[in-house]
Amino acid sequence: MAGLTLLRVERIKLFSTRSPWWCLATATVATIALAMLVAGTVTKDDLPTFTPAATQFAGRFGSVIMMVMAILAVTTEYRFSTIRVTFLAFPRRTDALLAKTVVVAGLAGLTGEVAAIGSWVVSVVLRPDAPLALRYARDFRVVIGSGVVWAIGAVIAIAAGLLIRHSAGAISAVMIWNLLLENLLPVIPRIGPHLQDWLPFTAASNFLYDGQPLGTDSALDQPSRLGPWGSLAYFAAFAALLLAIGIIVAKRRDA
User: Fold this and answer.
1) In this structure, how many other beta carbons lie within 10 angstroms of the beta carbon of residue 48?
2) For the whole model, what pTM was predicted?
3) What is the pLDDT along the chain (255 residues), one digit of tens a residue?
4) Where are the domains of the chain?
5) Quick check: 167 and 71 in contact, CB under 8 A?
């Protein structure tokens, strides 16, 4: 019963401010709208290569928005000291923080599924002649698996919020790592290709795009040695480890 109470409390706290609603709506609408834009610009010559993976072009953008929401769910509580009330009511901080993680990651995962399926549906409607049928495992994985990636990404964001505690700092750290460093590190001579498999967000792309982090045939887009499911396991393990560190730090610090 205490666990259900914690989940209910975290749900109420999450939706007591406007930012989660804005992030949820923006992530969903923007992802689907960009998918419509891409589908609308596909030419007849490009139709054979317009596969289900291509409909998920904007998925990373949407996941970034939900990661911002996850960070704010933590840092806002520290900013206004409402986290102290939670810890006073529920002294077991690990339980309280895990409940928050479940609620936020669950919402991110659900939003990711809606955005991914919506992107695929509008693409099918706009380009019925394209090979968009979900016939193979990789097709289902890139669409249905998006929600899993969004949820795990939210866990990483929560961990960053626990470690840094400041909204601007945590958001900057996650964005720089996700959007900048993971695109730059693989191009470092000699060591770059060896690092690529072990970058967490690249591993997430490996899972979605059948072991290829970019979903393209570029020279940098080499198949992962971990494979799709190994990449997902690594991404999840990285998130779990970072969250564990964040919870340990939160337990030792004053709220």
Assistant:
1) 10
2) 0.91
3) 567 888 998 898 888 888 899 999 999 999 999 999 999 898 888 888 899 999 998 899 999 999 999 999 999 999 988 888 888 888 889 999 999 999 999 999 999 999 999 999 999 999 999 999 999 988 999 999 999 999 999 999 999 999 999 999 999 999 999 999 988 888 888 887 788 888 999 999 999 987 654 444 443 456 677 889 999 999 999 999 999 999 999 988 765
4) 2-16+59-109+144-252
5) yes
